[in-house]
Each structure stands twice: as C-alpha cells, then as structure tokens.
Amino acid sequence: MPDFVGAVDQGTTSTRFMIFDHSGNEVARHQLEHQQIMPNAGWVEHNPTEIWERTRAVIETGLRNARLSASDLVALGVTNQRETTLVWNRRTGRPYYNAIVWQDTRTDRIAAALNRDGRGEVIRERAGLPPATYFSGAKIQWILENVDGVREAAESGEAVFGTTDTWLLWNLTGGAGGGVHVTDPTNASRTMLMDLETLDWDDELLSFFGVPRPMLPRILPSSHPEGYGLTRRTGPLGGEVPLAGDLGDQQAATVGQVCFEAGEAKNTYGTGNFLLLNTGTEPVRSRHGLLTTVCYRFGAEPPVYALEGSIAVTGSAVQWLRDQLGIISGAAQSEALARQVDDNGGVYFVPAFSGLFAPYWRSDARGVIVGLSRYNTNAHIARAALEAICYQSRDVVEAMQADSGVVLDVLRVDGGVTANNLCMQLQADVLGVPVSKPVVAETTALGAAYAAGLAVGFWRSTDDLRTHWNEARRWTPTWSDEQREKGYAGWKKAVERTLGWVEMD
Ligand SMILES: Nc1ncnc2c1ncn2[C@@H]1O[C@H](COP(=O)(O)OP(=O)(O)OP(=O)(O)O)[C@@H](O)[C@H]1O
Ligand SMILES: [Mg+2]
Q: Is 44 helix (H, G, I), strand (E, B) or coil?
C-alpha cells in the first residue's frame, strides 16, 4: 500500500493541496489564492475556471516539491468552501456564470420572502436551516432566473449544479469526457434542498426554488469505500488515484479535530468562524439560532449530525483592516497594533458585512463601529476587530449550550486566526473557558485526508485517528467575571445597532 494520502482544500480565499503520512503528519503542501470578484455591493463571485486552474497547479507543484507521484498516494480527499454555487454545462464544461460565493447577499429578498410565509418553516424543519442568503438554493434560483438559456438546459440535465467539491470531482475524473457528478451529505445539507433524515433531495424543497432535479449531483457518503471515481492520468496527478473522501470544510475540520463523540466540538477561525458540535446519529433541532447539519457519513454507517454556529466575518475583518482601511500591512500585524492599547477604549466593531449569521440570522444587518470618542485610535479599532471575533464566538457558544445542555470545559480551535496569541487569549477571557490548539493546525485538509484514508483502509477506525491529536498550545482565562460580563453587555448593545439597517421592502 502507498504511504501517503492527499487532500485538496478548496477554500474561500485560496486552494491548498496537502499530503499526510500514516501518523497524520504533514509531508507537503502548496497553496494559491484566487480572485475575489465583487461587481456590486454585497455581491461576491469566484471564477470557476480559475479555481480549477489553481487546483491543478497546487497539486502539480505540491507533488513535485515533495518528489512524490500519484503512485505514492493511496487516495485523495476533497474538502471545500461550502454553499458557493456553480452551474455549468456538462457537455462543454463551460460555466454559465461565475460561482456565487456563500458571503454573497444578492438573494436577500428571496430569503426574506421565504421567511415571511410557511415555506420558511418547512425549510427549517426538513433541511435544518433558516432561510438565508448564505445557502445554495436561492443562489441556484438566481442563476436560473438571470442567465439566458440555463433553465431549459437545467431541465434536460445539460446544465448541472455543484458546490466546489462537485466541480473539482467532476474535473478530476475527466470533466466533459466522463466526469462524475457527485457530492456528499455535508455539502448537500447546506443547500436548503436536502431532507436531513433521508439524505436525499426533497421535491417540495426543490419546488420552493424552482430547481429541476436533473441538474443535481448524486449524494454519496463522505468517506466512500467504492470511491467516487479515479483521477485521470492526463490530469494534474498524472495517474489514477481513488477519490474517496468529500466533506465540506467545516465538517472536515471537525473530523480533523477528531470530534467523533457526541458532545465534542471545535471552532475554526478562518475567513469566518464555524463552531460545530457533534450531536451523534440524531439531528438536534436548534431553538437558539444554530443550524442542524450533517457532520459526516462514513461508508455504510449511519450519518452523524452536528449543531453549527456559522459566523460570516472574523478573519476577513482583519483582511478588511488591511485592504480597505489600510491600517495594517499584514494580518499578523493586527496583534502588534491591538497590543498598543490595554483595552478596547469603549469601541465595539460588529463586522456584519454579509448581515449577521448565527445566532441572529439577520440579512438586514450591516456593520457598525460604535462607541467612538476623540480619544480612540487605530489600535482601538484593531483591538475591537479581534474582540469581535471572540464575542461572535461567545454568542454562538451561548446558543450551543442553551440548545444542547453541553457545557464546554475547553474549546478546541484551529484556523489562520489562531496564530494570533492576543486574539486567542481574548477568546479564553471572553468565554471564561480555556482554549486549546492542536499541533496539526491544518485540520480542514487533514479531515479530508482522514475521510479518504478511512475509505480505503489506510486507517482502520476513528480510534486510530484519535491517537494523532496532540495539544500545541493552551490559553487560560485571566479576566474577572465582572469584567467578562461588562464587556459582553457592551457587545450585545453594539449588535442591536446593526439590525434593520437594510430596508427589505
Ligand atoms: N496573525 C493573524 N491575526 C489575525 N488574523 C489572521 C492572522 N493570520 C491570519 N489571519 C486571518 O486568517 C484568515 C485565514 O485563515 P485560514 O487560512 O484558516 O482561512 P480559511 O478560512 O481556511 O480560508 P479559506 O476561507 O480560503 O478556506 C484570514 O482571514 C486572515 O486575515
Ligand atoms: Mg479554509
């Protein structure tokens, strides 16, 4: 058996290829960014062709740098930014439109209309999701209604839908020359089109968005012993490798953090933040603004579900300080700038750029910076941005504890922002709970590798994987309870100021 597993992590800002050994250690990686296309306020798009080209490039370069080839890889897993919606022609391989990214708010009126009538309740009950711009369903509807010729082609099955996992699996297995059209339940559970119990597309949900069934991919297990297909010799791997794992990025990170027992949770700090709590084989309905989602489905085993708190803007608020305000030159500098002051100086920053996601689900919210006085400086704004990451996570942790009764004794974290020590210290302070980070911080790619490796018997069981997890760093709370509650009360007040900013009628 070959010694390594590969993983492609197709993220919101970049695409990574990574190779792991049998102990779950990183052997190689290569990463390339792609363009963020913002044609109108609130619109965010990616170019699907560019995403496929970047994927090819990271695989080719990653293999070359590690002096490895397809024959060294036992399997390949794919993980992806979720919800981002593509429609392409299966005969020509040409996309009908750019990918509409999960952060895009152009469908806010579609979502608001669903929320005003009984359809919203059906979506909540059957798909586990509150109607929102975030999910794929309304994005597909937008493409069907706004791009010439797509509707007829979709009805005949010539125009097909996929999230970026589906797009890459199709291209890696030959594209227009016989590529497979598949996805997994974790990705499908983010569309508002899948029934959480049957793990199949639901005709009534499809009818809400006018989505023809022939355009949808087959839903196969996240770790699939039969494999979705083989990579093509003519593709970037230059050989045939079984594609055997497919997970949405946040579910992949949950797997990478070995949260295999009900009650285990992780929080990933990237472009946005995503806290997932494994709830076992029963879907738990949220009463406090969380999503019910599929956590993973391994082979013929029953699906495992999660409660999820999704936060749209966390690390991307740091990018905004860099790119739009220009007050830092790189993300890491946010820490040094914020450390120039001892506290937020009364300033709160609620980065509701895409409305507010969990636990509020308010498409009509927009960002605010409040509490400013003449005394404040860039340093307070940087500090408020880091605190916002932590306070948004607290909102979600509170909802999770209220929904599940599980009280966190430690928060497992990963993702780019966890490089920021001040931010992680603030997180422990804001929550009053220790924060713990594993040695392998690339949990998203690792989780996809785990799913693929389990499918082909490279790892025998999830217990095998548990032994790979080791703590690299821990932050413990230092604030008094009084300080913590005062800070949080200020945050809640700031959130109030964001609501109802966009008129929906
Ligand atoms: N030292 C730092 N302090 C604060 N934020 C940071 C720091 N380093 C990176 N970031 C932020 O982390 C984010 C990148 O993290 P990561 O690479 O985990 O993102 P990601 O969510 O996986 O990306 P993608 O959405 O493409 O998958 C960026 O938004 C960046 O601003
Ligand atoms: Mg990512």
A: coil
pLDDT, position 495: 98
Dihedral Cα 20, 25, 27, 28, nearest 10 deg: 80
pLDDT (tens digit, 9 = 90+) per residue, 147-195? 999 999 999 999 999 999 999 999 999 999 999 999 999 999 999 999 9
- Residue-wise pLDDT for 62-88, tens only, equals 999 999 999 999 999 999 999 999 999
CA distances for 123 relative to 99, 127, 206, 211, angstroms: 23, 5, 10, 15
Cis peptide before 359 (omega within 30 of 0): yes
pLDDT at 90 over 90: yes
Q: Are 386 and 351 in contact (CB under 8 A)?
A: no
The residues whose Cβ lies within 5 A of ligand 2, an ion, are 11, 249, 270, 444
Residue 440 banded pLDDT, cuts 50, 70, 90: confident
Q: DSSP code of 95?
A: B
CA 154 to centroid of ligand 1, rounded, Å: 36
Q: At residue 258, what are phi and psi to the nearest 5 degrees?
A: 50, 45
Ligand 1 pocket, 36 CB below 6 A?
Answer: no
Mutate to test the pocket of ligand 1, among 15, 257, 271 (most ligand atoms within 8 A of CB): 271
